[in-house]
Amino acid sequence: MARRTKKVKRTGRFGARYGVKIRHRVRGLEEKQKKWQVCPKCGRTRVKRESTGIWVCKKCNTKFAGGAYLPKTTAGGEVEKTIKGILG
Predict the structure, then answer these.
(1) pTM of whole model > 0.85?
(2) Rounded CA separation 69/26 (Å)
(3) Helices then strands (H, E): number in the chain?
């Protein structure tokens, strides 16, 4: 793989293309997406993205649907709050 500079990190693969703002957005999204996430079932930080919207816990082998870039989306959090308010 091509060498990247410290400043641009993962987006070094784009070179001078697409503009600075877009590359910064992509870097932010990819950093969040690629790091280990918390499993909703066992509570460990062992969840990785398998494909778009599909997340798998490497510890308890739980497979669940979530957002495209993060397992929990802001919209999903609002829905959970609403349901807890109605049922709880």
Answers:
(1) no
(2) 11
(3) 2, 3
